[in-house]
Amino acid sequence: MADLKQIDKSYIAGTYNRFPVAIVDGSGSEVYDENGKRYIDMGSGIGVTAFGISDDAWVEAVTAQLGKVQHMSNLYYTEPCARLAQMLCERTGFKKVFFANSGAEANECAIKVARKYACDKKGADHFTIITLKNSFHGRTITTLAATGQDHYHELFQPLTPGFVSVDAGDFEGLKAAALSNKAAAIMMECVQGEGGVIAMDPAFVRQVAEFCQAEDILLIVDEVQTGNGRTGKLYGYMHYDVQPDIISTAKGLGGGLPIGAALLGEKVENVLGFGDHGSTFGGNPVACAGAVSIIERLTPAFLEDVAAKSRYVFEAFAGCPGVESVSGLGLMVGIKTVRPAGEIVKACMERSVLCLTAKDKVRLLPALNISMDVLAEAVSVLKAVISEGAV
Ligand SMILES: *Cc1c(COP(=O)(O)O)cnc(C)c1O
């Protein structure tokens, strides 16, 4: 570990402040460090390993494809990407899929589609994308511009122009900004993940959707974190009784391999033509084979089970000493604690539970198939740590 830490420090760009743990093995929601110490994983690689570590069905799907064709380029047809696209469209009603490799890239596609649609339909001055304050949409220069948090912007000026952010929940402000800026699209998360696990107000989301529909402004929902069963429905927008024109997703879609996707609705299904967009690795057959094994297991019964685990977690922390509030949706949970979140995460790690933070909250994103026993064990450690020193 000391050696690994030194090599990492010498050769890896210093963008990550890592915990002093190297995970070398695991199964489901239980992982092991190099000394064989067991941890319960309540972060699932930031919502990526939807069915846990080295889950059998996923490993089988990925290795079967790996033994056939690992990559071909988008000059040729490959089966897993076609099957995955069909499955995503049939399950959601979206019409077309563009595959990328990450959440930021899925958002870049959504933004390109929105700009082209608005330019074709209303003119080249309709390029602005309205986003929400406290949002997170990625780390590229364009998705940083979309991210409504100034502190991400400061070091990297100038960012891509044409993004304006407004307060979440302030429909009148959003409407005014959209009209005065000739907006091409509104882009939002249903639950702001990195922003502190904050679910949007349903009335606000519906107002925005109706406004978008009336003004022919596209509604883009960033489902990178909320998608693929995380909230107890297949996609987060499905809680809100709205129909976005575009959703972007990534993280849990691949179950552990890099993949992103933009799902395009009826209005925009034919906006992109030959050569308008592309990706060398996008739709990679191994990543797509893994994703098929994830999506096909997100059945209504399975999602109901996710919702039941969510209710268990919310009830367990509500009113627990040391807890100020619990927020989120499904198995995307934010806990505002009396003690600083960073302290809680560190103490939990010592007691063999790995969790995350988001802003000033402890954030939990366990694997969707975590067993009730393991979940209860993690919850009891968390409750003990959170309540320490609190009365
Ligand atoms: C993680 C995240 C992204 C960025 O995804 P990457 O795969 O890291 O590019 C974008 N939007 C949301 C809502 C996210 O949670």
What can you tell me about this protein's structure?
The protein is α/β, with parallel strands linked by helices and 391 residues long. The chain has two domains: 2-54 and 300-387, Aspartate Aminotransferase, domain 1, CATH 3.90.1150; 69-295, Type I PLP-dependent aspartate aminotransferase-like (Major domain) (Aspartate Aminotransferase, domain 2, 3-Layer(aba) Sandwich), CATH 3.40.640.10. It has twelve helices and 17 strands. The radius of gyration is 21 Å and the shape is globular. The mean pLDDT is 97. The structure holds pyridoxal-5'-phosphate (PLP). Pyridoxal-5'-phosphate binds at residues 102-104, 136-138, 189, 193-194, 222, 224-225, 250-251.
